[in-house]
Amino acid sequence: MEERSLRVYQEKTFFSKISNTITKLLIPTRIGINGMLISIKRNNALKAFEQYRQIDSIESQTKQEQITKKFEDVYALYLESIDKYIMDSIYKKVKNDAATDFEKNALSQYYSIVHLKETEYLEYKYKKQMYLLNLDYETVDEINKPALSEKYKVLYATQMESLYKGLLKHYSIKLADHLTPGAKDEIYNKIFSTLEDYIENILPLKMEQEPENKVYKEIVEEYNNFEKFTVGKLDQNDNIEKNMVLLSLSRKLFTHSLPLIVAEQCYEKLLDDARSLIVDTRVTRKQEKAYSLLINLIEEYNVKLLATKIYWDKPQLREEYKAFWKQFKEINQKKDVNYIDYLQEKQILFLRNELKKVRKDKNKYYKIIQFYQMKLVELGAMQNLRNICTSEGNYKKILKPKKAKRTRKKVS
Questions:
Q1: Buried b (16+ CB within 10 A) or exposed e, 210-229
Q2: For residue range 281-314, what is the model confidence (pLDDT) as tens digits?
Q3: What is the pTM of this model?
């Protein structure tokens, strides 16, 4: 109690008040000095980056290595200067209750990233660089110098793309570890969140800077489809559909950073989410919407991923998929001839294929198995046989009735 009383008393002394006032007076000066130092180091980084971009036109390997090292060193000093600005200026402003909401939020985000250092160093390394670059990107934008802004955008987009790829590769490697279901779900969510951040914030800059890039031309339609998920509140169905679009875009943008085997696991996660949504939904309209999403997801998974898969762990699975793919192509030919038949036959094919998968774990998927069977009955691909003595799910199993034994009456 004595220590606590002494501490309170000391905080209220005249000298303490003076030091707090001086600190408040010094903050603007510190910001000015730090801002000037950041500006100098930013300009150095931009000059080194311009040379680095021309590296392919230089024949001398020694010269290439020198330019690369110079850029890496100057770029590291530039990021360190931004880091110093956060600690020297924003921290003191927050401490003295003189910070704006933006500065308070910036410091909160900073510490949430620093917190990763002890447990997830690689994730910390990538996210901290992203954070520092993004913070200065906002600063450059506010300076309102078009020439500087255009130069910086190229550096910013290039470095951010590299960092996003590194982060996705890190998450891909993490998925290979022996993780609990909960920990795996967390990695899946981080992958989808990282893809969303990149496509929402960095991809538009890359598309603007490289209008002739073939990949960007190919994904315009899907990118426009993604944009509708950036407005308004999303429900669970919308979130699954949004993640499906993100995965589809990733197959073009992050082929190496998000390998096919990882994308396959992400698709399987979305399929499981869609199945759960169907059986957990009690409203018929919402259930039908979730079912429609599932059919689209199955098609995306088979056409955009499994159709490109070269290596299969088990030859039997490859043969099963080849048989499925052959049937799918035959059905697809009816699309322009009789669209209703095409839709019906496609659903039957998908549901039968799904049943083969989920029946391997009946305890987990018994509800969705019943739903698939009900749908197949509606589509005329399965019969619902009622009023027989034993049942399997919602569907009756035919049992042949036993013949009654004939007995002769004794004549008295």
A1: eeeeeebeebeebbebbeeb
A2: 989 999 999 999 999 999 999 999 999 998 898 8
A3: 0.83
